[in-house]
Structures are given as structure tokens and as C-alpha cells.
Design brief:
about 100 residues, mainly beta, 3-stranded antiparallel sheet
């Protein structure tokens, strides 16, 4: 979600415009699906966003394959989203079991 903030000239502007759309598009390979299992040469990192009652919880795992220069390619390995049903909270045991 883009946020509104002030530029150095005091005018309001929308966030999320740090990179041109063309640069973002070049960073993705169309049609590439998440990895189905761990791949040799990749290191994995995960991010977890826990929302319990009003928001969703989400887990994202990224695989990073670094080259000799230390830079690397990042590939989506896994995502999962848990959404609470109306009047209920997310079952955190389901999140932990994943």
C-alpha cells in the first residue's frame, strides 16, 4: 500500500516510486513459479507477518543463490497466507505447523 509523504518541497507525494516500472519489470522472469523443494546452491530466508484477528498472517520464503561477487539471484521459494474468518482469530498452531 502506497503511503503519502511530503517531498523536500513540502508537496504531498505517493510512496513506492523509488524505482521506475521498467526496472522492476526487468527483475522478474515471467512464468517462473515458486520452487517446489530446496535447491542446491541456494540459501533460504523467511519473513513472517503475524496478524491474528483483523489482518491476515503471511509467510514468505526466498531462496538466494550468490555469485562469486557476493551478489545473487533471489527466487520465491514458498508463500502461504492465513486469513481469519469473520468473528474468529487465526489459528496460530496452523501457522507454526507450516
Amino acid at each position: 500500500m502506497a503511503t503519502a509523504r511530503r517531498s523536500r518541497h513540502g508537496r504531498r507525494r505517493r510512496g513506492g516510486d523509488a524505482l521506475p516500472a521498467e526496472a522492476i519489470a526487468q527483475a522478474f522472469r515471467e512464468g517462473l513459479s515458486p520452487q517446489r523443494e530446496a535447491q542446491p546452491g541456494f540459501e533460504y530466508v523467511a519473513g513472517l507477518d503475524l496478524g491474528v484477528s483483523r489482518d491476515a498472517s503471511a509467510l514468505c520464503v526466498l531462496g538466494v543463490r550468490r555469485g562469486a561477487d557476493g551478489h545473487g539471484r533471489i527466487r520465491l521459494a514458498f508463500t502461504r497466507v492465513w486469513r481469519p474468518t469473520r468473528g474468529q482469530k487465526i489459528n496460530l498452531q496452523d501457522v507454526e505447523n507450516t
